[in-house]
Structures are given as structure tokens and as C-alpha cells.
Amino acid sequence: MRVLLAGGAGYIGAHTAVALLEAGHEAVLLDNLDNTSAVVAQRIAQITGTTAPLVVGDAADDEVVERAFSEHGPFDAVIHFAAHKAVGESMQKPLEYYANNLDSTFALLRVGLAHGIRSFVFSSTGTVYSDPADLPFTEEATRNLVDLSNPYSKSKLMNEVVLQDVQAVNPDVSITSLRYFNPVGAHASGLIGEDPQGIPNNLMPFVARVAVGRLEAINVFGDDYDTPDGTGQRDYIHVVDLAEGHVAALEKAKPGFAAYNLGTGRPVSVLELIASFERAIGRELPKRIAPRRPGDLAATYCDPAKAERALGWKARLTIDDMTRDVWHWQQGNPGGYEG
Ligand code: NAD
To answer: Could you tell me if 152 and 90 are in contact, meaning their C-beta atoms sit under 8 angstroms apart?
Structure first.
């Protein structure tokens, strides 16, 4: 299969490109390098021995997408990773988030469908679920746009509505929405990993930067939640498992719209994640308890059974695999790709 990966030079896109190439597919990356580096394409080639060409440009621009199709097509499928993804920032810049996260979908669908793609896979999120009464979240858990706390999550749910309407009038096309829980980890080679710009929003890259001395101490946001150790619990999934979920979604695609949770189904607390990281590096890390962050749920984790049933996919890697691989990546690239 020949696949266009919009946002493919980003964290999850790069790991998915590797998984696709290793499974014998072909991959082309389209990325405006807003949150990544062109070095990623070289690293993918280093890992796989195969080149994934990189088209630098905006996936929300029909002309750019058209150029990717005419220069590198025909494509069987598009995977759409391109988005702004910081929950907190989305509350400050809602219009930027809605515009980028929706316009990119419109352009990719318009051009992709005109070129006859058979399959479209969308990066959605576990934050489309909002009611703790539904834990563990199944794909059917109540979801209501107005219940979501931030424009980022709303933009993802809006995308899913658009995708279902578009699929309904393109009945031969497969559209799959993958709802990721908390992707962490890095490729075992240590050549690709998460390299957020500025101060990381998510726990794992923050911990990794404390470990290499780029940040002073880990903030534990809230230690009085109704969880076993009082800190928030998340469903961390190794990015390599997640990448393989995309390969499974493409290989098992059938006409229709379907949404799948991609997670492990196992909640891990902030303190458990930090303890695992400390085991990986063999020393304790400085940490301090900070107030809860508004909008954070005490716990989020999924029921991943539907993906296993329909796609034959299941997460295999543990939290210790995730922290070990992050540490390997961070040590080899203390300043990120450009460092
Ligand atoms: P990332 O920022 O590393 O990757 C996104 C890539 O898209 C970046 O390389 C960025 O430069 C690019 N991009 C953004 N807007 C673009 C545009 N208009 N045109 C072309 N390229 C554009 O993020 P990621 O963690 O790899 O996330 C990939 C997808 O998964 C996103 O849609 C994100 O919302 C979703 N997701 C991520 C997480 C997470 O915690 N990482 C969780 C759930 C869902």
C-alpha cells in the first residue's frame, strides 16, 4: 500500500512511517515542520534502509496536498496526523486550533477523494470522552461536544462528525478514527522520539528533560485525587504499539466509518510513571507537588477490546519498556533533533 502521512514528520507519524515501511508498505510524509524537524526523514531512512520522501508544506492548503498527490501519488490511503495538540494552548488560541485541525481534514479529504483514495485514517484522542462514570471508556461512552473542556478535544470530535458525514456519501471508502490514549516511548533505536518545542505539556517528556538537567523538577499536579496513590492515572501506550495500530487499521480497513480506542486499558499513576523512569535511570528525580490543573480528570483509561476484535491489534509493551526507550532516546538526543 502507498500511504500519504500528513503530519508524518511528527512524533507519532514518524513511528508509523517506520512501522509501515517495515511491513513492506510505502510512505510519503507531508509536514509543515511547525512542530518537528526535517532531520526526522533522515532518521526514518537510517532505521529502515528505505526513504520516505518529505513534502514540506501545509496540509490545510489544497494546492500543497494536490502537489503531494501529483508528485508522489497515486496513494491508496491517507493518515492524518497533522494538528495542533496542546490542550492548554487551545484554550488561549481556539481559532487557530479549530482552523488548523479542521481545515487540514477538509483539504486532505477534498484532494484525496478526488484522487480516489480507498482509505483515510484519522488521529483522534481519548479526550473525546469526558464522564468518569464511563470508565473504562468504550467507543460507545457518552460523548457530548459541550461537555468537553477544551477546543483541542472539541476539534477532534468535530472532525469525527465531519468524517462520518463524508463517509456516508462515499460508501466505498473506509474512514477510521483512532482514539489514542497517552502515547509515550520512543523507537528502540533511540533515533526517533518525542521532541516537543518549548516546555513540554505532557508528563513523560517533562520527566525526561528533568532527567537530563534541562528542567529543574517534575511538577506532580495534584496528589489528592480519588486514586490509589492520590495522583492522576493515565493509560500510557508505547508509541511503537500505537504505530502498529495504524498498520493494522490500514490492513484491516473495510468500507464504512469506525472508531477504535488505542490504549493498553491499564491505568498508571503519575508517581508510578516517575518510579518507572527512576528505575530506568538508576536514580531519584527531583519532584514537587503542585495544585491540580483545571480540566484534568482523576483517571482516564480505555477498554481496548474493540480494536483487538476488529483489527487483531493489542498493545504489547509495558510502562518499563516506555520509560527505558524514552531514556535511550533522550540520552542520545539531549537537545532533541536539532540539539
Ligand atoms: P506532533 O506535533 O509531533 O505531530 C504533528 C505533526 O503535524 C507535526 O510534525 C507538525 O509539524 C505537523 N503539522 C501540524 N499542522 C500541520 C499542517 N497544517 N500541515 C502540515 N503539517 C502540520 O504530534 P503527535 O504527538 O505526533 O500527534 C499526532 C496526532 O495525534 C495529532 O493529530 C494529535 O492531535 C494526535 N494525538 C496526539 C496525542 C499525544 O499525546 N501525542 C494524543 C492523542 C492524539
So the answer is: yes
What is the chain's mean pLDDT, rounded?
A: 96
> Distance (Å, rounded) from C-alpha 193 to C-alpha 204?
11
What confidence score (pLDDT) does residue 253 get?
97
User: What's the average model confidence in pLDDT over 308-321?
Assistant: 98
Out of 34, 97, 103, give the residue to mutate to test ligand 1, the one with the largest number of ligand atoms within 8 Å of its CB: 34
Nearest residue (CA) to ligand 1, atom 43: 125
What pLDDT is recorded for position 34? Answer: 95
Range 270-292 average pLDDT: 97
Cell of 95: 481559532
Radius of gyration for the chain, computed over Cα atoms and rounded to the nearest angstrom: 19
152 is catalytic: yes
Joined grid coordinates for residue 104: 487540514
Q: What is the pTM of this model?
A: 0.98
Q: Is the CB of 83 under 6 A from ligand 1?
A: yes
CA distance 1 to 145: 35
Q: Quick one: 99 exposed, middle or buried, by C-beta within 10 A (0-12, 13-18, 19+)?
A: middle
Residue 49: partners with Cβ closer than 8 Å, 6 or more residues away:
none
**What pLDDT is attached to residue 295?**
82
Tell me: pLDDT of 9 over 80.
yes
Nearest residue to 115 via CA among 221, 16, 2, 268: 2
Q: What is the pLDDT of residues 133-145, one digit of tens each?
A: 999 999 999 778 8
Nearest ligand 1 atom to alpha carbon 156:
34
Q: Is the CB of 327 under 6 A from ligand 1?
A: no
Is residue 291 classed as helix, strand or coil in its secondary structure?
A: coil
Q: Residues 152, 180, 236, 301: which is the catalytic one?
A: 152
Q: Is the dihedral of CA 309, 143, 253, 65 positive or negative?
A: negative
Ligand 1 proximity of 58 Cβ (cutoff 6 Å): yes
CB of 36 shorter than 6 A to ligand 1: yes
Q: Looking at residue 226, what is its pLDDT?
A: 96
